Amino acid sequence: MSAAMLELSGVQAFYGESHILHGIDLEVRKGELVTLLGRNGSGRTTTLKAILGLVGRRTGTIRFNGQDIASMSPHRITRLGLGYCPEERGIFSGLTTEENLLLPPVVAEGGMGLDEIYEIFPNLRERRNSPGTRLSGGEQQMLAMARILRTGARLLLLDEITEGLAPVIVKKLGEVIRLLKQRGYTIVLVEQNFRFAAPLADRHIVLEHGRIVATVTQEELPTRTDMLHELLGV
């Protein structure tokens, strides 16, 4: 069994006076793909933001490759090799597609070069000179994902990457995630689309009101799908 790349123990998170996470215990092993499932407001996105230090306040223990990162600032955390693809994508309108792609710094060896990224996302090659916000929603999502693949990050935190996208784009993103998993990336995927997440993940973790209420492995999925549907309101 692979060593733990990411460990959360007793993590609580706050936005001002709002208490969002109530003691999250989570371990993600190297090369594993874990989905965080749950209804809106369950704490899935806040869990990612707590890992990165993007909440108002957090307590508990967070370790990345054995190093305690709970007291680190977000820019120091990402430079350890965490790549974050936010739900809002963060594409800069004043930059071309390729300039957006080249913007993040390289934090470690092993990141993908432009040619390799364009091979995976041929749409981005065709639109490389277009302003970033002139891309379609699907192309912007591809750009947001491609941008972190350059950096050398080996742990990818992906937040709602399929939301609002056409089925053909969702299928393409599923193919990309399978490819990244084959290449040894570790992925934490926040996802509302259970049909998209179901065949991809090694484990599904369900959150409700800021707490983990269920963990289902890929092997257990056939016998626990009804339970997951009930929890998720599918």
Describe what is shown at a glance.
With 234 residues, the protein is an alpha/beta fold. The chain has helices at residues 44-52, 74-78, 97-102, 114-120, 122-126, 137-149, 167-182, 194-197, 221-232; strands at residues 4-15, 18-29, 33-37, 57-64, 67-68, 82-85, 155-159, 186-190, 203-208, 211-217.
Mean pLDDT: 92
Oligomer: single chain
Straight-line distance between termini: 32 Å
Q: How much beta, percentage-wise? A: 25-35%
Number of strands: 10
Radius of gyration: 17 Å
Helix content: 25-40%
pLDDT < 50 runs, ≥5 residues: none
Can you summarize the main beta sheet? 6 strands, mixed
Strand order of the largest sheet: 6-7-8-3-9-10
Order of helices and strands: EEEHEEHEHHHHEHEHEEH
Topology:
Elements: E1 4-15, E2 18-29, E3 33-37, H1 44-52, E4 57-64, E5 67-68, H2 74-78, E6 82-85, H3 97-102, H4 114-120, H5 122-126, H6 137-149, E7 155-159, H7 167-182, E8 186-190, H8 194-197, E9 203-208, E10 211-217, H9 221-232
Parallel strand pairs: 3-8, 3-9, 6-7, 7-8
Antiparallel strand pairs: 1-2, 1-4, 4-5, 9-10
Description:
The chain is of the alpha/beta class. It has a domain at 90-152. 33% of the residues lie in helices and 28% in strands. The protein contains nine helices and ten strands. The protein has helices spanning 44-52, 74-78, 97-102, 114-120, 122-126, 137-149, 167-182, 194-197, 221-232, and strands at 4-15, 18-29, 33-37, 57-64, 67-68, 82-85, 155-159, 186-190, 203-208, 211-217. Helix 7 (167-182) links the parallel strand 7 and strand 8. The relative contact order is 0.18. The model has no long low-confidence stretch (mean pLDDT 92).
